[in-house]
Design brief:
By secondary structure, this protein is an alpha+beta fold. The protein has one domain: Clam (outer membrane lipoprotein receptor (LolB), chain A), CATH 2.50.20.20. Helix content is 22%, strand content 37%. The chain is built from six helices and twelve strands. Helix 3 runs antiparallel to helix 4. The protein starts with a helix and ends in a 6-residue tail after the last strand.
Length: 222
């Protein structure tokens, strides 16, 4: 799975670098400043819960993730029945997937060998780096900076989303819209593009324990 489908949904939260001064009157500011303020809020957050769906290579993917500053965990489900549990602790990534997942992405041999086994590997080397880049707030921030800082942003005004007042910011180039809290700290509330990702539980502690008994994927020739 490539980086762009998920980043199209999340990158607006971190697309414009720099420091901002989060306030309770975001709606009166220009789009770029609102996003800068959201960046500052995200940078200060201890954790966040993300959930939703998007499309990658024509495949519908559902994700549920809890991200801390340098760690994260959760699950993803592809096409309804191919499921994987994923985790990151520091520089080590982990994955445990069912046979349907391995069949879809690695073939029948991998499905037989790896079904329901925890595997571990580097967060910076294939194949586990493909999802590790999204499994911490810091890593997601770094990844989302690439190629988006020059995008023109457009403020669409305020609206109500799931009972919360938000400001909608559109990135026309990526056809993605970020909803940012209009009151209190300007945390991202949702991102809409090739799907919808909701953000909640900002600044709550996220504790991730390394799965026990994980097999180093390099020992399997991966």
């Amino acid at each position: 799975m490539g980086r762009r489908p998920l980043i199209l949904l999340c990158a607006l939260a971190v697309a414009v670098g720099g420091c901002g001064g989060p306030s309770t009157s975001e709606a009166s500011k220009p789009a770029a400043q609102i996003v800068k303020d959201a960046v500052a809020a995200v940078n200060d957050a201890k954790g966040v819960h993300m959930s939703g769906t998007f499309v990658s290579s024509g495949k519908p993917i559902a994700v549920t993730l809890d991200l801390g500053k340098a760690s994260g965990q959760g699950s993803l489900t592809v096409e309804g029945n191919a499921r994987a549990d994923v985790a990151r602790v520091g520089d080590v990534s982990y994955i445990r997937a069912n046979s349907e997942f391995w069949q879809l992405f690695a073939g029948s041999g991998a499905a037989l060998l790896l079904h329901d086994r925890w595997l571990s590997g580097s967060t910076t080397k294939p194949p586990l780096n493909a999802f590790a880049k999204f499994l911490s707030i810091d890593a997601l921030l770094r990844e989302a900076f690439t190629g988006t800082s020059s995008h023109e942003l457009k403020k669409l005004g305020t609206r109500t989303y799931r009972g919360q007042k938000v400001i909608a910011i559109l990135d026309p180039k990526d056809h993605a819209t970020l909803l940012i809290a209009a009151e209190g700290k300007p945390y991202p509330v949702a991102a809409k593009g090739a799907g919808t990702i909701d953000f909640s539980d900002w600044d709550k502690d996220v504790t991730v324990q390394a799965p026990k008994g994980a097999t180093d994927i390099t020992g399997l020739g991966g």
